[in-house]
Amino acid sequence: MKDLRRYLVLKYVQYLVLSSSNAISTFLGLLGSLYTIIILQSAKVSSKSTAVLIASLAKADILVSVSVVSEMVIWTFDVSISSTAFTSALLQNLLTANAHISCLLLSCVAFEAYLITFFPTESRHLRTVKNATLTSRVIWILVAAECTLFQTDDLLKASSTSAPTRSPCVLLFHFSSTAAALLKSLSYFLGILLRIVNVYIYYKIFFSMSNR
């Protein structure tokens, strides 16, 4: 459907074109995700692998909603939080998780579009609802593990000043800090790679359709 294509374009601009999300793109993205979830409930939309990936992409904005609503509640009602650093890190990690899930799912949609364009018959056994559901779950699990590691690292950094020098927590802090740093570097380079791959895929698809 045209509305779903527009939604994908919006998400590509938000996560793979813009260097960072701003208030306008975030608001439009939330509205688009809400509208997309409603559309996908319609009987007119067939249950295909692409629809499964798009549904998971739309649901990823729940993380943004939680972060935005929490900040609004804290700011509006002046809620007192015992651990401000922990809460701030958690809200930021939710936004990071949303961005990573969205980029990976958008890349999956692009790869599927590539298969449909160039290998429609050969790839039919790969482009199934079961595989799309499994792929979405794996992405969510991996990003959830990443978010947990980042949150653990932030928590240990906040509590490291009060920990004894030879405490086992110090070893845990160094391990989590190193792992988090490596993962952030990997995520950064993976993000650049995904941008390049997505541009290449749609470049090939565009010129393939033009030649036809």
TrEMBL record:
<dbReference type="GO" id="GO:0005886">
    <property type="term" value="C:plasma membrane"/>
</dbReference>
<keyword id="KW-1003">Cell membrane</keyword>
<keyword id="KW-0675">Receptor</keyword>
<protein>
    <recommendedName>
        <fullName>G-protein coupled receptors family 1 profile domain-containing protein</fullName>
    </recommendedName>
</protein>
<feature type="transmembrane region" description="Helical">
    <location>
        <begin position="97"/>
        <end position="119"/>
    </location>
</feature>
<feature type="transmembrane region" description="Helical">
    <location>
        <begin position="131"/>
        <end position="151"/>
    </location>
</feature>
<feature type="transmembrane region" description="Helical">
    <location>
        <begin position="12"/>
        <end position="40"/>
    </location>
</feature>
<dbReference type="InterPro" id="IPR000276">
    <property type="entry name" value="GPCR_Rhodpsn"/>
</dbReference>
<dbReference type="Pfam" id="PF00001">
    <property type="entry name" value="7tm_1"/>
</dbReference>
<keyword id="KW-0807">Transducer</keyword>
<dbReference type="GO" id="GO:0007218">
    <property type="term" value="P:neuropeptide signaling pathway"/>
</dbReference>
<keyword id="KW-0812">Transmembrane</keyword>
<feature type="domain" description="G-protein coupled receptors family 1 profile">
    <location>
        <begin position="32"/>
        <end position="212"/>
    </location>
</feature>
<dbReference type="GO" id="GO:0008528">
    <property type="term" value="F:G protein-coupled peptide receptor activity"/>
</dbReference>
<keyword id="KW-0472">Membrane</keyword>
<dbReference type="InterPro" id="IPR017452">
    <property type="entry name" value="GPCR_Rhodpsn_7TM"/>
</dbReference>
<feature type="transmembrane region" description="Helical">
    <location>
        <begin position="171"/>
        <end position="203"/>
    </location>
</feature>
<keyword id="KW-0297">G-protein coupled receptor</keyword>
<keyword id="KW-1133">Transmembrane helix</keyword>
